[in-house]
Amino acid sequence: MKIIQTSSDIIHFVTFAKSQHQTIGFVPTMGALHQGHLALLKQAKAENDVVICSIFVNPTQFNDVEDYKKYPRNVEKDIDSIKSLCDVVFVPSVEEMYPTISNKMYDLEGLDMVMEGKYRPGHFNGVVMIVDRFFEIIAADYAYFGKKDFQQVVIIKKLVETGKHSVRIVTVDTVREEDGLAYSSRNVLLSAGKRKEAPFIYQTLLQAKSMACKLSPYDIHKWVVEEFTKNNSFKLEYAAIVDAVSLKEIKDFKESQEAVLCIAAFLDNVRLIDNLELYKK
Ligand code: AMP
Asked: How far apart are CA 182 and CA 199, in angstroms?
């Protein structure tokens, strides 16, 4: 596995692979790699000749400087854990990705204004900025994203819809620990005691799913909010039952081809997000 740090070297690598008619799968990550990331890499490896994984903690997607500073980083361990799963790990510096200060604004048609976007203003503009830059220098055939970040996938698909990049987006199911907690780089920030309580989010999502179509989205949402209110360990930031394409909250399951319940909640000071499809036509 090659370690590449500059855009000129990665462009060179990609150009050569393309000249050999090799397909390229690309997996962007922020490191602190876990089983969720590995699932993306495994799928990319199964479907492509060459796999590139990027590890880059992107400053422009953090609306809170403290959150950026405390984001877990362990590049050496990460590189070691993916040796057998990718051909290139791309670990650029901030200066390499942002040679000039960029304040480019993307029109994401309001998809970036709800849920995560509402509580983390500017977050998705930063995500799209870095993914746009990655897609410019890594002309992959396929790029892999996890459903764990459901809203992010919808927004990246919107970026690709503009026709600027020819990459195809592949989504990968959320990988969970045995007790149901979705793998996340932030889970390591939980104390042992709080970690035991964390599966509450997934349990609530599952119970909500069992009510889908028997109760209205309004009633299920109300029930979810009540469950979180009863649990003193969690502070619910939002719960929303949305259409999987428009991300608009739905009033009736019949309105939507696919409805997803998305939740963000704090457990101690650790912000956890998760989601589950409640209904699909
Ligand atoms: P991150 O490093 O958190 O930016 O995540 C990099 C990629 O891994 C994103 O596409 C995430 O959606 C995906 N990912 C993170 N956690 C999981 C998980 N538990 N299951 C599947 N994919 C995940």
From this structure: 8
The rounded average pLDDT for each run of 10 residues, N- to C-terminus, in the chain (281 residues) is: 98 98 98 98 98 98 91 95 97 95 90 97 97 97 98 98 94 98 95 98 98 95 98 98 97 94 96 97 90
DSSP string, 14-59: HHHHHHTT--EEEEEE-SS--HHHHHHHHHHHHH-SEEEEEE---G
DSSP state of 167: P
Whole-angstrom Cα Rg for the chain: 19
Residue 198 Cβ contacting ligand 1 at under 6 Å? no
Mutate to test the pocket of ligand 1, among 34, 37, 78, 151 (most ligand atoms within 8 A of CB): 37
Where among 143, 172, 201 does a domain terminate?
A: 172
Instruction: Assess if residue 178 is contained within a domain.
Output: no
Listed residue (106, 115, 108) closest to 151, CA to CA: 115
Assigned domain for 224 exists? yes
